[in-house]
UniProtKB/TrEMBL annotation, chain B:
InterPro entries: NADH_Q_OxRdtase_chainM/4 (IPR010227), NADH_UbQ_OxRdtase (IPR003918), ND/Mrp_TM (IPR001750). The lineage of its organism: Bacteria, Pseudomonadati, Pseudomonadota, Gammaproteobacteria, Lysobacterales. GO terms for molecular function: NADH dehydrogenase (ubiquinone) activity; NADH dehydrogenase activity; ubiquinone binding. It is a multi-pass membrane protein. Belongs to the complex I subunit 4 family. One of its GO terms (cellular component) is endomembrane system. This is NADH-quinone oxidoreductase subunit M. It is found in: Endomembrane system; Membrane. The keyword Transcription regulation does not apply. Its main location: membrane. It comes from Ahniella affigens.
Amino acid sequence: MANPIPSPVSMLDFWAILPEAFLALSACILLLADLYIPKDKKAATHYLSLLVLVITAVLVWRNGQDASLFGSAFSGMFVRDGVATIAKFFILVSSSLVLVYAKPSLEMRGLMTGEYYLLILFSVLGMMLMASSGSMLTIYLGLELLALCSYALVALDRDNGLASEAAMKYFVLGAMASGMLLYGMSMVYGATGTLDLTGIRGAINSNMLHPTLVLFGIVFIVIGIAFKFGTAPFHMWVPDVYQGAPTAVALFVGSAPKIAAFAMAYRLLENALGNASQHWANMLAVLSLLSLILGNLIAIAQTNFKRMLAYSTVSHVGFLVLGLIGGGVVGFSASLFYAIGYAITAAAAFGLIVLMSRSGFEAENIEDFAGLNSRNSWYAFLVLVVMGSLAGVPGFIGFLIKLEVLMAAINGKFLWLALIAGAFAVVGAFYYLRVIKVVYFDAPKSDAALVVPNDWVFRTVLGLNVLALIGLGLFGGPLLSWCQRAVAGI
Amino acid sequence: MTEHLLSLLIGLPILGGIATIVLGRNSATTARWVSLIVALLTLAASIPLYLGYDAQAGGLQFVESKLWIDSINAYYSLGADGISVALIVLTTFTSVLVLIGAWEAIDEKVHQYTAAFLFLEALMIGVFSATDALLFYLFFEAMLIPMFIIIGVWGGPRRVYATIKFFLYTFFGSIFMLIGLIYLYLQTGTWNLTELAAANIPLTAQTWLFFSFLLAFAVKVPMFPVHTWLPDAHVEAPTGGSVVLAAIMLKIGGYGFIRFSLPITPDASHELAWLVIALSLIAVIYIGFVALVQEDMKKLIAYSSISHMGFVTLGTFIAFTLARESGATDAARLGLQGAMVQMVSHGFISGAMFSCVGVLYDRVHSRMIKDYGGVVNTMPWFAAFFVFFGMANSGLPGTSGFVGEFMVILASFQASPWIAAAAAVTLIVGAAYTLWLVKRVVFGEIGNDHVRHLTDINAREALMLGAFAIAVLLVGVWPAPLTNLMDSSINEVVAQLLRVKV
């Protein structure tokens, strides 16, 4: 049971939130500083934000090295453990990638404003809170901070009709999902009498007073989680946001929040409701099945690259949930591994869109990649690797993460679901292959030389990002062990 | 040196491929030479493998093992027994000839083409030498990407259809093998093939595993009814792609049966051997007749490949009936040995046949039989090779094609005269379609102006076809170096298939 009277806050508590405190403070300073940065010098904001993210990542890393500091702070509201460390670290890494890829894209669209960077920084803060939350309250706080910033980000290009529509849909659906989640949380609170996650777990373990109430609570909590992940049938916002939002924003929404969503699922399902796993496992199995089927089948029909990526995300989330269903150390570490691997791959996929776009031309359709190999074989190779990784071909990280979740599902006695997932991985391979086909086999639409963003940082980071997909695919062992140790609490 | 020989054989073509892409970017000639030199070096490196393998001792040699992904206990472990050595040498040998064959035929993005073949070579050697199931799967699947690119970029008009079909069929087959392997891993805690072969598995689980392996390898072989991707892939692939596909990639299916199905699921394989035998006979007879009516040379040879590969699966699975039911372990050994010889021999013959078609195609740009006729008048040297390989394909004694088929038929006769009789039908059908093909293409009146202006093969092409011809003859008249190499490894396979695991 959580202590009803909060104990006095100690210095150690502040030490625990050092990375978050640094990020929040820097974001606030940057908010003010940005007012004085002239419009044509916004690159300064860009580099400063990137610096803030990198420093925060270093702080998280350093904090995570010292296991003796693990534990909870602020009366259990804030947790510091292995999962929090690794999730936060990779949230920061993928957000940094996002910023690098976003710069050329923002410049092309004339959206290079300070708001973008500040909203990103605050949503990263929200995600970090989610990853470290020890209470339903902190989860909700982090979630809403992330969500509100994301709604605003999607609407960043306010003169674009598609973006406004996407933002509207995202906001309405998101608000509903938040409501559901809150509703579920209130039921669990009603049944257990506490908001503290470990307290809830204990209460469910000892003697469940109101099993029906808890069960209802779980249903709504699962819906909230499913919405954040974008699993079918709560995926409606995904394609619209991916397609409507500026590339720089879609890029963000498609990568780091998946890790945050995993963290939220881990906190709620494992930390709080771990003793009721038989109740949520089957619900998640249905969600996973639907996502695999819907995501893969609808993606085949897409000609718009971003929409295809959106539906492919739905299917990937189906795989990610496969690990959650398996539960336990094996399952949750597999899902964490999946979320990280997917976030890195998705960031690279959007980086490719930015690469192919130029002022006044957004490479949105799959056909825009036609004949890339004849124009530049290095960039064609990048597309090949990213698509191969998304399809789950061995040698790329996409295979290793799929292998892990399939193992988790079979380990959790969901062999039938693993078989279906395998079959739909083949369906998925089809549409990824189509992109490779367009890149390698089709003739280019114009003879003009390829115009790519004249930003060497961007091109280098993208190249390294893609090579990392191979590197992790062949030598992903240490990252995987890190995930397992984190979830096992070693 | 020898303890890293297999790693060297895998690493050399990969590094060479990267070098080819970098150095040959602006010059096709550089790309050709760099890749050829790398392939020759790899071939040279495989000679110590052949010479250094102690066939008397048998077992896995050149073993190396290094922890790869520790949390799932996967190892980067390589090793080769006699069967692997034979197939690795086949791979390095064919790769050199493929690069020679493509010297002039490919003039677009040469550096990518030759590099793709080097990557493919490395991955295929990896498949034949991996002793860790996960590592095997990695090579097995990654191989698809270079092949996908080779067919799709340099292939014929319907290449996109063919290449996507090829990829999806094989991907579909192997994903279920992966799930089977995961299941096995969760039961036994190891990916090591030797340890998996020693594990006891109940019959129901074995049956499911058997089907998951069957799906993966039957698509690769390919067996009836999952063979339909092969004619499409062959017809659209460039010559080199066809050669590698027929000569080596199909063998990976047969190899998989010997490495996975037989040792890991011997009881289920025994129970279900009738199914594989029936499918093999359908492939041998029915597909042989299908080959008879083809009008496209490549399609004809592709169907002939399916038919000949039927002998491999027949020889492999007839061994169960022989060894377990009639206790004829010698006959079982003969069947397996026949299957292996047939794999190697088919590698040479089909590689040569596809190269011959490539030679014609480079000149006339047609693969249709009706566009030729009387080629012997303008290309006597070529005609000599073509007739020779045609004879080998129909199983003429003295060529490698005869040895394998004969051994398999002999072995199956001891199991059932009916099976032997059915399999022997292929000797007639095979002779019919091959000789008819040769007759229509090579002999008769000169059909048209294209043929009238043909020039005979040049030294480069003669070198390539000559090398294939020597290999075919060598295995045909003196198979001992090959059979001795594999002898003790095949004894081990027979011992494994006799092991009751339930």
